[in-house]
Amino acid sequence: MRQSSAFLTRVRGFSLVNILLLSVLGSALAIVAMNVFPTVNEYFTILKSIERISKQARSPEEAKALFSKQLDVEYSISSIKASDLLVTMQKEKLVISFAYDKEILILEPVYILIKYRGRSS
After folding, report:
1. For residue 84, what are the contacts with CB-CB under 8 A and spacing of at least 6?
2. How does pLDDT run across 59-117, given as a tens digit for each residue?
3. Residue-wise over 28-48: b if at least 16 C-beta within 10 A, else e?
């Protein structure tokens, strides 16, 4: 009897409640990450597109036309249109900037609002 009580006091680890709480927390974080990742991917796709367009286009109208053509090819961009772009000339260089908000549904009453902003260099 004396040996078994000494053995039990040395046993360490997670209890069942701790494992359940960690799995619930991990699942919640995984759900948020799976919902946020596509919007982040879209943002980087838009950034890459406007970088390429700012180097190709010679006027604001041409930049918007090129972005419209890009939307026909790139189906992952759905948050902005060519009319949402702000195209300016700075020091003989075309600069394209954009901004949009994205609401992500987590559970029915809970949303995450992410404000995306970017510009070509």
Report:
1. 98, 100
2. 999 999 999 999 999 888 999 999 999 999 888 889 999 999 999 998 889 899 999 99
3. eeeeeeeeeeebeebbeebbe
- Report d(CA 17, CA 48) in Å as an integer: 46
The SS3 assignment for 62 reads: helix
Concatenated DSSP letters of 6-56: HHHHH-----HHHHHHHHHHHHHHHHHHHHHHHHHHHHHHHHHHHHHHHHH
Nearest-angstrom CA–CA distance, 85 and 51: 13
- Mind listing the pLDDT tens digit for each residue in 87-103? 998 888 899 999 999 99
CB atoms within 10 A of CB 57: 19
